């Protein structure tokens, strides 16, 4: 599921409540040796897809705290953040809350979440790097990775076969050669690779593949690094691919990519693993049902010779700083994220939060491409002002300018670095 960082106005409202409670431990927060209740907020994904796992965590906690009442509230992603922002300004906070990994940063920065002891959580030394980064700020941990998701390439086997391509590509030269053949067969009105220009997750994957980064921390401050030779090399490869294979609207983002793919005017997309399946849903498949049996997912190869570094998605579980049952909350989180729990989440179609349990999935026919992609991952800079970078659409606007030929890569990265540096260190 696609997640966005929360709106700045929501964070501002949240901070009003936090300002009155200091660190949280002194006023409104703390711990109880024998908590009478625990309130857990999860998304509807858990309610619909792994309720038995939630019950198992409840039962284990109840065995340790006889008589404890565990209250569950379930929210859609769009409804949860506004609700959370409003209650964080009060003393009626949940004890455990599920957070999209891209939602964590502003809450960590503003002191809304309690610091957690990683030694209390199974697999903490083996968490996927990108997920660990999403729950870490200034060297402290404020969340526990719950499950993960990675990006994969998906293409139409029928369109490939019509161009004389039998197998999915394993290297970037193979990929571009195959896309060349598909593009030549289908003509200029068809996108061999439908890749929205404003999809900065993909563009930055090319940057990280080439050894670059959006920004790096030095001496306690963050500095944008898109003007580095490595970043320019990655963005140049990305630009070249768009120029050759993307013949759709160059002002688009990736929000409706699966819907556009369902129209049947493109052979390949690169995105979240669920997008291909959603495009094949009868509601969106406008090809007369051709997508259902003709889609194949594979690990996206990168120009570097390795798999393209994937933005890592997923969820974290956190404890609000005002919780009065922090120990019990942490224990419940461990029960929902330990190795046994991860096995249940894997069976439900998720990727695990750790490298050990991810490894054997790489050969699984269903999730192999996602598991392999998740191994080589990146995450956004955990900088105080990253929310401002996203809110201002700095990356998206510059990438669109590159794709439309309004700016060279070199001119665009100079502008991006300047705009990022102006806000990235400002909380």
From TrEMBL:
<keyword id="KW-0732">Signal</keyword>
<protein>
    <submittedName>
        <fullName>Sugar ABC transporter substrate-binding protein</fullName>
    </submittedName>
</protein>
<keyword id="KW-0813">Transport</keyword>
<dbReference type="InterPro" id="IPR006059">
    <property type="entry name" value="SBP"/>
</dbReference>
<dbReference type="Pfam" id="PF13416">
    <property type="entry name" value="SBP_bac_8"/>
</dbReference>
<feature type="signal peptide">
    <location>
        <begin position="1"/>
        <end position="19"/>
    </location>
</feature>
<comment type="similarity">
    <text>Belongs to the bacterial solute-binding protein 1 family.</text>
</comment>
């Amino acid at each position: 599921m696609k997640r966005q960082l929360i709106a700045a106005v929501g964070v501002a409202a949240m901070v009003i409540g936090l300002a009155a409670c200091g660190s949280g431990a002194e006023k409104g927060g703390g711990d109880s040796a024998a908590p009478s209740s625990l309130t857990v907020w999860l998304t509807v994904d858990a309610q619909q897809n792994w309720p038995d796992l939630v019950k198992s965590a409840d039962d284990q906690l109840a065995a340790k705290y006889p008589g404890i009442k565990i209250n569950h509230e379930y929210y859609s992603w769009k409804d949860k953040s506004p609700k959370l922002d409003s209650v964080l300004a009060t003393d009626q906070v949940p004890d455990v809350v599920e957070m999209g990994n891209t939602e964590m940063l502003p809450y960590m920065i503003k002191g809304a979440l309690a610091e957690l002891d990683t030694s209390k959580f199974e697999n903490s030394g083996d968490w996927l790097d990108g997920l660990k980064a999403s729950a870490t700020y200034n060297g402290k941990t404020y969340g526990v990775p719950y499950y993960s998701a990675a990006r994969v390439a998906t293409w139409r086997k029928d369109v490939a076969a019509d161009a004389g391509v039998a197998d999915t590509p394993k290297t970037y030269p193979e990929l571009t050669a195959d896309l060349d053949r598909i593009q030549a067969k289908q003509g200029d009105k068809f996108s061999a690779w439908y890749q929205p220009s404003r999809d900065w997750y993909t563009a930055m994957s090319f940057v990280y593949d080439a050894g670059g980064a959006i920004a790096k921390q030095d001496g306690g401050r963050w500095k944008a690094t898109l003007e580095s030779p490595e970043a320019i090399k990655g963005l140049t490869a990305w630009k070249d691919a768009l120029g050759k294979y993307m013949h759709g609207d160059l002002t688009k983002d990736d929000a409706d990519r699966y819907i556009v793919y369902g129209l049947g005017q493109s052979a390949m997309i690169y995105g979240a693993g669920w997008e291909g399946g959603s495009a094949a849903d009868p509601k969106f498949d406008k090809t007369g049902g051709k997508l259902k049996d003709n889609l194949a997912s594979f690990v996206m190869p990168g120009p570097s010779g390795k798999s393209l570094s994937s933005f890592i998605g997923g969820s974290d579980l956190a404890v609000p700083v005002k919780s009065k049952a922090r120990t019990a909350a942490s224990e419940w989180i461990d029960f929902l994220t330990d190795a046994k729990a991860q096995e249940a989440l894997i069976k439900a179609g998720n990727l695990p939060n750790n490298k050990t349990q991810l490894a054997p999935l790489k050969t699984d026919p269903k999730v192999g491409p996602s598991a392999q992609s998740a191994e080589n991952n990146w995450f956004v800079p955990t900088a105080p002002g990253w929310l401002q970078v996203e809110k201002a659409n700095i990356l998206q606007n510059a990438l669109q300018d590159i794709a439309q030929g309004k700016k060279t890569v070199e001119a665009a990265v100079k502008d991006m670095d300047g705009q990022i540096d102006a806000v990235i260190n400002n909380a």
